[in-house]
Amino acid sequence: MTDFPAQSLSPLDGRYRAAVAPLAEYLSEAGLNRARVEVEVEWLIALTDNMLFGTTPLSEELKLRLRALYLDFGQAEIDWLAEREAVTRHDVKAVEYLVRDRLSKLGLDAIAELTHFACTSEDINSTSYALIVKRAVTDVWLPKLRTVIGSLHSLAAKHRDAAMLSRTHGQPATPTTMGKELAVFAWRLERVAAQVAASDYLAKFSGATGTWSAHVAADPKVDWPLITREFIESLGLGFNPLTTQIESHDWQVELYDRVRHAGGILHNLATDVWTYISLGYFAQIPVAGATGSSTMPHKINPIRFENAEANLEISGGLFTTLASTLVTSRLQRDLTDSTTQRNIGVAFGHSLLALDNLERGLREISLAEDVLRADLDANWEVLAEAIQTVVRAEIAAGHSSITDPYALLKDLTRGRRVGAEQLAEFVNGLDITDAAKQRLLALTPATYTGLAASLVDEA
Q: Is the domain of 309 the same as that of 216?
């Protein structure tokens, strides 16, 4: 029954499977085992390339056939490993036996004893996890984040001049433009995306307690740190030379904190767009055949942003747990990291699901510029900031005898609505130069946006 989505315990493997399926290629149990086979095979090739223990380099044809063990990894291998692990009760040992079995079928029994040579399970695991997390981030998660950033850039450019009433503390405040506000999120996310893109992915390959003891015992003349470093780096990973039995996971802590940070910014985006929809600033584009409410036919609910918000909270909690747990290992090794790391895919899955909803949600909104204009026209009192600041400048220049311009404007505008005519009358009565008066009289809430539009261009 568990093969059916309706019976899945996690919604990521049921209801939301289509949205997160690309991650399963890497961060599923099958993806992890395929990477383990890859590491075992490539270590065999590295040992023979270095002609250790009387071996000679394999022919290119044999290397291709050997690499097919992980390149063509599929259901047959998944089933084989499940059956063998039921006996061994050890996942990495089952992978070793699979490689040995396939070596025999390839007629390579002569190098079978070099399978898993001098390795502890964590040599294989740290390398495999680094591979699958790196590939999941660079091939799936980061491109999806950049798609959302791209959507924000497009919307920001489209609405660079769309004047909008700000709401600081939820109250009417100095106008901005919708484009500039969306550009803020794009700018924030670009920074974190760059940090994620620059992440380290480290592995260790130094034996049971990180001392290369077994390696040296097998052949003390070999420069094992160099060979293992070259091996790890050949896989596109960074090498950690100083570890206990496990790679210390600090790179994972750094990565998950960065991804969680991105999630926090995305959560802020989701709640802000939801609020703009609530205010009527954004109208939601109807999707043919979709139902907003089971009883209220008129409704289009902002479900994309609500779904994103919830999934970002789940992924953020999981990434926090991953980071706080993986940073610690008792003495030379404990097993808490093993079961914890099996939830890496779950954390990225909820994050990817949120990104998918945000991407679709941003495509399904249109700016209601008439609502923005009406809101601005109903709040002329927001020009009080401009008036009192111009008066201050006039005082500083010796052009005005007004004292305490802030209090003057506070008495006029605080807690009350002030219309265009009332403000114009007030400005005309001020002790300031005619040039300053004309500059203020030309202002409207819709034009009091400063450099907002040019900031979009800069971003």
A: yes
What is residue 381's predicted lDDT score, i.e. its pLDDT? 93
For strands 365-367 and 238-239, give the pairing. Answer: unpaired
Residue 1's pLDDT band, with cuts at 50, 70 and 90, is very low
Query: The CATH number of the domain where 255 resides is what?
Result: 1.20.200.10
Quick one: pLDDT at residue 8?
Answer: 76
Residue 94 in tokens: 């089952």
Note if 366 is an active site residue: no
- Which of 234, 278, 293, 324 is catalytic? The answer is 293
- Give the number of domains in the chain: 3
Taking only the tens place, the pLDDT of each residue in 18-56 is 999 999 999 999 999 999 999 999 999 999 999 999 999
Residues 111 and 21 in one domain: yes
Is 90 annotated in the active site?
no
Please report the pLDDT score of residue 415 as a whole number: 83
Q: Are 260 and 320 in contact (CB under 8 A)?
A: yes
| Any domain includes 38 | yes
- The confidence score (pLDDT) of residue 458 equals 87
Which one, of 246, 249, 239, 411, lies nearest residue 323 by Cα? 249
One domain, residues 354 and 244: yes
Is the pLDDT confidence value at 137 over 50?
A: yes
Q: Using the predicted structure, report yes or no on whether residue 171 has a pLDDT greater than 80.
A: yes
For residues 128 and 274, membership in a common domain is answered with yes
Residue at 207 is within a domain: yes
Catalytic residue (choose from 169, 294, 298, 366): 169
| pLDDT at residue 350 greater than cutoff 80 | yes
